[in-house]
């Protein structure tokens, strides 16, 4: 009995020693940068931050249930939703959604707005469809069935991708609109959980194409399409084109920073970008201060880590607004 009690005591001591000081869950889109920031913050402060990627819908649900100290979502809540759930909200970083593909022996691929919309609608059945070949002169695309890979879980990445589709396609806007999850049209598509799951499916499925956060696409060595933007320019997914897009973001603290920034204007702007957000409970200011301390440190000291992963750090003008927002809410 003494031995069992000793083991229980040791187990309890170990769990306490390794327990996180603050816990979060939610969006997988910013997971790579959050993990990088968490490691840097722990090295500097010895504070343990735990963030579990579950998808934006699960993060919002965890936050509403007060099961976590903070939550990540790529689908921002509007001021009415925030008031109802008694939450604060601020942006953390800007990232991009890559259109990744797996076509053996094919290098660069260009996709027009129309081609991308029709692929998502399930109307492009084969890779040698004229909508694709017309923008890829000299590329011998195969007569192979196209498999579209999407998120199977409630996802802020899906929210931002379908927002973009709604901007570029009247048909998509009318029939589906902007959603975190949906029954995808067509008869040749498969779904994966989290961005990592979609990346794995694209990697292992020949002749597939899917939407994934840039960091996961890059980490998995996936090919990424050059995509037509609002100005008719074909833009590669790379940091400078993400920065050009992020510069157009209108994130207003008076609206709790509520904004969706997909399909921005600008000749050099990559068209499928998204800000990702953090949710805090209004009734827990002391815990909130621990969360904002982490993000404040990351904004000041770890912006380079975001850039290295292909994310766009928030400009100083915006982080100053975020700090003022925190201060006004009493969470800094």
Topology readout:
Elements: H1 2-18, E1 22-26, H2 31-45, E2 49-53, H3 56-64, E3 70-73, H4 79-85, E4 87-102, E5 110-111, H5 113-120, H6 130-133, E6 147-151, H7 156-168, H8 170-175, E7 189-192, H9 194-204, E8 208-213, H10 214-219, E9 223-224, E10 226-228, E11 234-235, H11 239-246, E12 273-281, H12 285-301, H13 303-308, H14 316-329
Parallel strand pairs: 1-2, 1-3, 5-10, 6-7, 6-8
Antiparallel strand pairs: 3-12, 4-8, 4-9, 4-12, 10-11
Textual characterization of the structure:
With 332 residues, the protein is of the alpha/beta class. The protein has 2 domains: 22-95 and 249-259 and 273-329, D-Maltodextrin-Binding Protein, domain 2; 97-247, Periplasmic binding protein-like II (D-Maltodextrin-Binding Protein, domain 2). It is 42% helix and 19% strand. The chain is built from 14 helices and 12 strands. Strands 1, 2, 3, 4, 6, 7, 8, 9 and 12 form a 9-stranded mixed sheet that branches. The protein has a 3-stranded mixed sheet with strand order 5-10-11. A hairpin with a 5-residue loop joins strand 10 (226-228) and strand 11 (234-235). Residues 6-18 have low confidence and may be disordered.
Brief rundown of the structure:
The protein is an alpha/beta fold and 332 residues long. The chain has 14 helices and twelve strands.
State the main characteristics.
332 residues, alpha/beta, D-Maltodextrin-Binding Protein, domain 2, 2 domains, 9-stranded mixed beta sheet, 3-stranded mixed beta sheet, 12 strands, 42% helix, 19% strand, signal, ABC_phos-bd_PstS, phosphate transport, Phosphate-binding protein
């Amino acid at each position: 009995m003494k031995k069992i009690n000793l083991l229980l005591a040791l187990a309890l001591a170990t769990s306490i020693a390794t327990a996180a000081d603050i816990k979060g869950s939610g969006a997988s889109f910013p997971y790579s940068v959050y993990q990088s920031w968490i490691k840097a913050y722990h090295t500097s402060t010895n504070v343990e931050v735990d963030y579990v990627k579950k998808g934006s819908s699960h993060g919002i649900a965890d936050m509403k249930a007060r099961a976590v100290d903070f939550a990540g979502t790529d689908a921002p809540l509007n001021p009415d939703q925030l008031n109802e759930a008694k939450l604060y909200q601020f942006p953390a970083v800007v990232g991009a959604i890559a259109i990744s593909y797996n076509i053996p022996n094919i290098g660069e691929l260009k996709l027009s707005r129309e081609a991308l919309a029709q692929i998502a609608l399930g109307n492009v059945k084969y890779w040698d469809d004229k909508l694709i070949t017309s923008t890829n002169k000299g590329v011998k695309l195969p007569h192979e069935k196209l498999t579209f890979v999407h998120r199977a879980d409630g996802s802020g990445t899906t929210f931002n991708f379908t927002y973009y589709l709604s901007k570029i396609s009247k048909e998509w806007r009318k029939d589906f609109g902007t959603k975190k999850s949906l029954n995808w049209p067509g008869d040749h598509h498969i779904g994966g959980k989290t961005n990592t799951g979609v990346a794995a499916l694209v990697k292992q499925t020949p002749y597939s194409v899917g939407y994934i956060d840039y960091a996961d696409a890059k980490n998995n060595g996936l090919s990424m399409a050059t995509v037509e933007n609002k100005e008719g320019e074909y833009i590669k997914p790379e940091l400078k084109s993400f920065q050009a897009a992020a510069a157009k973001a209108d994130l207003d603290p008076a609206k709790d920073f509520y904004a969706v920034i997909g399909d921005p204007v600008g000749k050099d702007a990559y068209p499928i970008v998204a800000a990702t957000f953090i949710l805090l409970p209004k009734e827990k200011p002391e815990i909130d201060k621990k969360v904002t301390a982490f993000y404040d440190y990351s904004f000041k000291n770890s912006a380079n880590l975001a850039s290295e992963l292909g994310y766009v750090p928030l400009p100083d003008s915006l982080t100053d607004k975020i700090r003022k927002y925190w201060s006004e809410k009493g969470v800094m």
